[in-house]
Specification:
heterodimer, A: Rossmann fold, Rossmann fold, seven-stranded parallel β-sheet, about 40% helix, B: alpha+beta, Glutamine Phosphoribosylpyrophosphate, subunit 1, domain 1
Chain lengths: ~375, ~625
Amino acid sequence: MKIHVWVPDYASAIGGIQTFSRFIVRALRDVFPESEIAVFSKNDTSYPDPASDPANSFTPMGWWTPKLRTPEFAWQLFRSAARERPDIVVTAHVNFAPVAHWLHKLFHIPYVAVGHGVEVWEIGNKRIRRALRAADCLLAVSDFTRLRMASTLALDANRIALLPNTFDPEQFYPGPKPHYLLKRYGLAANQPVILTIARLASAERYKGYDQLLRAMPLVREQFPNVRYVLGGRGPDRARIEALIRDLDVSANVTLAGYVPDHELRSHYNLCDVFAMPSKGEGFGIVFLEALGCGKPVLAGNKDGSVDAVLNGALGVLVDPDNVTEIANALIAILGRKHSNRMISDADALRSRAIEAYGYQRFRERLSEVIRPILKEEITK
Amino acid sequence: MCGIAGILNPGHDRDDLELRLRRFARDLHHRGPDDSGQFISKDRVAGLVSTRLAIQDLSAAGHQPMTTADGRYTIVFNGEIYNFKQLRSELEADGEIFNSDSDTEVILKMYTRYGPDCVREFAGMFGIVIWDEIDESCFIARGALGIKPLYYFEESGRLIFASEVRALLNSGLIPRKLCRDAVTGYLLFGAVPEPLTLIEGVSALPAGHYMTWRAGKTRVTKFWELEFGDDSIPETEAVRVVREALNDSIARHLVSDVPVGVFLSGGVDSTTVVALASRLTKTPLRTFCISFDNPEFNEGDIAARTAGHFGTQHSDWRLDSTTAKALLPTFLEKSDQPSIDGFNTFCVSKLAHDHGLKVVLSGLGGDELFGGYRSFQIVPFMVRASRLLDPVKTGVGQLLQQRFASARTNRLGHFLTDLPITSAAYWAMRGIFTPREVVKLMPRFGCEAKDDKTQLPMFVPPQPTLEDEVSYLEIARYMRNQLLRDSDVMSMAWSLELRVPFVDVNLIGALRQIPARMRLASNKRMLLSAVPEIPKWVRERPKQGFAFPFKEWLTGEWQEIFRRIETESPILLKSWYRSWCLFALENFISRNQIDVPLSSAVAGSSIGAQRKCSQG
């Protein structure tokens, strides 16, 4: 059995779609151990670590100049699939779906397309719309995205299956506040810490770090030594620094800069609450990772985050535009006085998150949605 | 600096544990001749052994294995933690009390308090193993930059580890079978690419990773990765940062309870070490250099002049071909895994050893960090050019891979048929044999090659520029797999601790913020600006690698051997380093009695002949 997986990023970028893509490949390998999996990545310029990658082959196309990359990638996808005739194509981004549509028409290759967030909430491009409507299987990473996607495609929501994001509980687990980070940021072990990790760019402001900064003076009134650690780098940093000065919260905010993958768990374990009152999450994998580390999370109530925190069972949902509400929620969480008692119970948070979104569940769901569209002799 | 080894979950060998550990101690004696010790856990689930070269705290208080007062944790440790005094005073401020002046005890206390993540606070080179008697688990870590090696073999819940592959092989617990992928990697690059080793099933714990072992299950976690930043910073500020970070690193690397020397050549890097170190030591620095009669290779005169300039106590060894040839058998005997290099470090280590030194500093790493190789200009050029040439390049590439062209041109040809990405161009520059040639060579070593897609894919974490990608590859491939491996084994062969102040996490941490266009500016401009003490005669000298006149030494009996290798080779060898590459691998195979399935191609060769001898 041959599987082609098309992804925008795989080995070298970090973000929700990339993490999801890696899990898809891992799950395909586990569900179909004998299959030949070929991954094609639009933006990578090197190979993934051969020691840990489950794919059989990998084609990085990020070396094309940005202007030519899209058509060249499309051509590469088409050519490879026409030559190798995979039994199924999985496209981790809907923008590649039109290529899968042609392959389907010419060679009857079934295809699966995945919707994550904003890119499928409104789809104007006619070819993409047509390709998605004709897909053998449509997946959405959250119920929120599923409903938005169904509405923009004018489809019955039942046509779209749910495959929520997942996380690796072996990689994200609770632990004491790491000494090396306490030292790096000049924190005491008992000092309350609020954490956000996001790219600092104007396009990412929907993540809500501005609102959090604005909430800091209020939180500080209750917790004078509170520290907001904002991890990430990007062109928005200078503006954020100015905002911090204007709000006079310099002593309570640390701009941690880029947080590499291998320090993510340590950062979650450093904080007392992971806060990202976002307005544009398709799902928000970071919430799962923080929950895996047993940390309470604060999320916005207007996007896919609602799914990640199981409608508020696993975290606190707030109006992302309401600074007072954000501040009050943070104060309640840090003071362990929130009405939802579970969010102060690290073990309960972790086990509920694993139960709902652990990798085992992800793998089972993927198997359930993919098997029906494969030819019978393959699934036997 | 030491040799460490051990067995977890020995199973049937439970009763033989002492004997096994004694054998490890014997095989690792050269790494630590000052002291040795072994530890066996209560239920005989774990056995650890250490041979120690005493450098910090020469007293018996620094003895290894070292156990905590409550008997819970036991450590064996190879390497140095250069910031141990600072960590120790922080711990003391928190109320910890110490029984020795060794860095080993600091590691043990850090682990007890802060768990596995403590390794993120260590600036140094290390392989650390800590046994937890209560949890019956083991923690195994290797330093961020992989300066010190640590190899392991895992089979049905049992874990065996050691500082050298040879020691693992001699344990008698591991099948002597070649690893196909490692042989491929070795032939492509001239050194075995980690985490592979030439022995099937034996892996190097990757640099910047730790492993936890519990009830026969292992989990490996990354704690460090090399990722350059793209901040903007004024040039004067950048120069100040480099200067300060270099000075700090060299000061840390001078911490020792025994005298410290420096390997000095005619190059910028070792001169930098001497220039900064001589200001930091009270007694005159000892410097060591190998020189030759052949002026093409000789750096002795320049090094002597530099030594005089900085007032060091300089020793020079003029190496002639007779002496060099006489040393080659010892060199081969002391080698662990083969590479196309290593003899130079072997000789200069002997020189320092003969002068009674136990610790030396070297300038290794300066080229990788400050853009000292031509690859920093050529690889990005090749990548860009190849992207432009895309429509026609495959045809040209096929042509350039023909027999008539040189080995280098063949590799360039292969690159043109490959993806135009940094790792492919880097291989074309640094590689030895092309994938096509490897396919033809593999049967000689009893390995089957699957197809000609044998080039090992290389991972490069996100870097802001192509030049940064080259720097990553130089550090994580060439330096780690070849330079550092040879440096460790060859210095340890003479019970000498080699320290590399350029290869330092804090220094690299400071350099990360400087953009590539400054940090990797051609001719190491950044380094030269940061160290104005480097004298004119070193600055103005054209770049020359620390090379040995190998070719002219390989006469007489050596010529015979190399002629045989050329005759037996199924491909044209074209350059001496390619002959050496095959010779070193054959030497490893026969010396370690590796099981090579005798195909017809090999039966007539020297490996076959030697195998028959050893069996007979």
